[in-house]
């Protein structure tokens, strides 16, 4: 089960956050910070899966954005990597060559997609 979806740039600015479990605002900010530190500092030679608390974060970097999903520890990582790629392809088709500014200025359209 997906716990949350985060789209963050390299500087740690969250461009999209969708939570499927209830969290307090302070906890959301803490999670966003921890996930960003976790994925940015990893060597590109490592896998795109990393354990996070009692769950697993699956992430992928496209240009300057990190697409991160937090899922249950027993879920299939490759299926979620494919989901991330499909989401990026949909965004690219929808915005015709998507960039970070498309997500910033059209966040209301992007929130409907996932």
UniProtKB/TrEMBL annotation:
Occurrences of domain AP complex mu/sigma subunit (ranges): 1-111
Membrane topology: Peripheral membrane protein
GO cellular component, one term: AP-2 adaptor complex
Compartment list: Cell membrane; Membrane, Coated pit
Coiled-coil regions listed in the entry: none
GO MF annotations in UniProt: clathrin adaptor activity
Protein's name in the database: AP complex subunit sigma
Pfam entry (one): Clat_adaptor_s
Major site of localization recorded for this protein: membrane
Keyword field: Cell membrane, Coated pit, Endocytosis, Membrane, Protein transport, Transport
Family: Belongs to the adaptor complexes small subunit family.
Gene3D superfamilies assigned: 3.30.450.60
């Amino acid at each position: 089960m997906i716990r949350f979806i985060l789209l963050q740039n390299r500087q740690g600015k969250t461009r999209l956050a969708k939570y499927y479990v209830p969290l307090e605002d302070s906890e959301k900010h803490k999670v966003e910070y921890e996930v960003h530190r976790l994925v940015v500092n990893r060597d590109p030679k490592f896998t795109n899966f990393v354990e996070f608390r009692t769950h697993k974060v699956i992430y992928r970097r496209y240009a300057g954005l990190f697409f991160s999903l937090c899922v249950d520890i027993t879920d299939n990582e490759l299926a979620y990597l494919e989901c991330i790629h499909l989401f990026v392809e949909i965004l690219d088709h929808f915005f015709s060559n998507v960039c970070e500014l498309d997500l910033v200025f059209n966040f209301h359209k992007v929130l409907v997609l996932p």
